[in-house]
Write a structure and sequence with these properties.
By secondary structure, the protein is α/β, with parallel strands linked by helices. The chain has a single domain (about 1-225), classed as Ribonuclease Z/Hydroxyacylglutathione hydrolase-like (Metallo-beta-lactamase, Chain A, 4-Layer Sandwich). Helix content is about 15%, strand content about 30%. The protein is built from 5 helices and 16 strands. The protein has a 7-stranded mixed beta sheet with strand order 6-5-4-3-2-1-16, covered by helices on one side. Strands 7-8-11-12-13-14-15 form a 7-stranded mixed beta sheet. Strands 9-10 form a two-stranded antiparallel ribbon. Strand 5 (about 70), helix 3 (about 75-80) and strand 6 form a beta-alpha-beta unit. The structure holds nickel (II) ion and manganese (II) ion. Manganese (II) ion binds near residues 54, 142 and 168.
């Protein structure tokens, strides 16, 4: 499974026929190096919550690729009104798809959808556990440190993707505690450095984490799991 970091919380995942995006925030992302034009063949888009830096370019990419968006029920309703194909899920649910299984996990955050006409209720924010061919990825979404993460230890996560930027989410020290709760084999830090308010050091995170391999991905950097 090839994982490409698109900056902020965004990823492109490719494994054979499975081509997916998570939180594709490209337009308006000062650190993004990829553009919407590059994604013409996408099967699924995972959206962790309704904030603009996660929902991002989902509507445009979903429409042009006919990708199915996996998101919570409320965001799915919002996207459905815009003729986007969706698969609604909700917190704690696990579902089998043609590519593998997905579990929607808790996240401690907000999920309002910003529109020109005001904020629309976006349900609960979430994270995703995506399992394919015996490999498990956990994308935490935006979240504070939560004891719920202790439950994830039983999932035997191969790769955890965790925010470290603080202010809106866990900072470096809380993300280190999250790694201790989750006990993944590998960790990728995200959601830092995009804006001044979430400046953080991935190297400091790497130095503080024990018992997991920290993989620092540059924007557009790739890792094969
Ligand atoms: Ni957010
Ligand atoms: Mn965010």
């Amino acid at each position: 499974m090839k994982i490409k970091y698109l900056g902020h919380a965004g990823f492109y995942i490719e494994d054979g026929d499975f081509k997916a995006l998570i939180d594709p925030f490209l337009s308006g992302n000062p650190k993004a190096k990829a553009s919407v034009d590059e994604f013409d063949d996408i099967n699924y888009i995972f959206v962790t919550h309704g904030h603009g830096d996660h929902l991002g370019d989902t509507v445009e990419i979903a429409k042009k690729t006919s990708a199915s968006v996996i998101a919570n029920f409320e965001i799915s309703l919002y996207l459905g009104e815009q003729n986007v194909t969706t698969h609604p899920m909700h917190i704690g649910g696990r579902t089998k798809f043609d590519f593998g299984t997905v579990k929607m996990t808790t996240a401690l955050h907000g999920s309002g959808i910003q529109t020109p006409n005001g904020i629309i209720y976006g349900g609960n924010p979430c994270g995703f556990i995506i399992e394919r061919n015996g490999k498990k990825i956990y994308h935490a979404g935006d979240t504070g440190l939560t004891l719920d993460m202790k439950l994830l230890e039983d999932e035997n996560i191969d790769l955890a993707i965790l925010p470290i930027g603080g202010n809106f989410t866990m900072d470096v020290d809380d993300a280190v505690r999250a790694v201790d709760f989750i006990k993944p084999k590998k960790v990728v830090p995200i959601h830092y450095g995009t804006f001044p308010v979430i400046e953080a050091s991935p190297e400091a995170f790497k130095n503080k984490v024990i018992n997991a391999e920290v993989i620092i991905l540059k924007v557009n950097g790739e890792y094969t799991l």
